[in-house]
Design goal:
Helices cover 71% and strands 7% of the residues. It is mainly alpha-helical and 268 residues long.
């Protein structure tokens, strides 16, 4: 039935029906594309989730080793924080950012660029040099793992938000837009069918009236001919005959009236 379910307020015409069908086709195409995009993003999201889990476990192990190595350095050489701060002149690690496009979503990715050499090679020269070197390598590995985890975590958060937005759009198109357009199309079709039935009924009425009028006219004509035939006259003789003398008299009378009449004086 027309009007069942939510629909758009629209005047039912054939042009509106064509436009609504075009919009429905576009909505179905958009729903299909968004569903494919959601599936691709979900696949990448799960892959990143596995990598995040591995990176976090790896980060825990690396930080544990780094803490033990720092404890060894502190036990062997004492506090060397001030020596490292005094001898550090430039950054040993630089982070470069790049972008990755996944189904129209730009994901940032971070890479570690390690500068060769160091500014505190002489730290621990007197004692504990081996522990200092081992601690430095372990903490370098920790920094690399931390940058990798940051890249994965950022992509994870962006994908999570984009997937939620895409799911909302897919659900809105599937459960709101498409049903509303379907109901609108059904409403327009039902109204157009009703208009066609009304027009067909009107034409039948008009044709019936014309047929009745034609039959009445034929019956009247037949009755007139029957009356004339009963009087014994020809159909053409029943019409009144006007003689030529009467026509001439009427023309003379009109001529006399035109000559005898006077126009009123017109004052300019």
């Amino acid at each position: 039935m027309s009007g069942t379910g939510p629909r758009e307020s629209i005047f039912p015409t054939r042009m509106a029906l064509t436009n609504t069908k075009t919009r429905l086709k576009g909505a179905q195409t958009g729903h299909s594309l968004l569903a494919k995009k959601r599936d691709a993003l979900t696949t990448r999201f799960r892959a990143i989730l596995r990598k995040v889990d591995e990176a976090k476990r790896k980060m825990g192990r690396v930080m544990q080793l780094a803490s033990f190595s720092l404890a060894e350095v502190t036990y062997a050489t004492g506090d060397i924080a001030y020596l490292v701060q005094e001898q550090a002149k430039s950054a040993s690690f630089k982070v470069r950012a790049k972008q990755e496009n996944v189904s129209g979503v730009v994901l940032p990715a971070f890479e570690v660029d390690r500068v060769p050499g160091t500014d505190f090679n002489l730290t621990g020269l007197g004692r504990g040099g081996q522990q200092v070197l081992r601690s430095k390598e372990v903490y370098a590995k920790a920094v690399e793992t931390l940058v990798e985890l940051a890249s994965l975590q950022t992509a994870f958060m962006i994908l999570d938000e984009v997937i939620r937005a895409t799911n909302r759009r897919v659900n809105a198109i599937e459960h709101v837009v498409i049903p509303r357009l379907d109901n609108t199309i059904k409403y327009i079709i039902s109204e157009l069918d009703e208009m066609d039935r009304e027009e067909f009924f009107r034409l039948k009425k008009v044709q019936g009236k014309k047929k009745r009028d034609a039959e009445a006219a034929e019956a009247k004509e037949a009755k007139r001919k029957a009356e004339i035939a009963a009087q014994g006259l020809e159909p053409d003789a029943a019409a009144p005959v006007v003689s030529s003398a009467e026509i001439s008299a009427e023309d003379d009378e009109m001529t006399v009236d035109l000559l005898s009449s006077k126009d009123d004086d017109i004052i300019f």
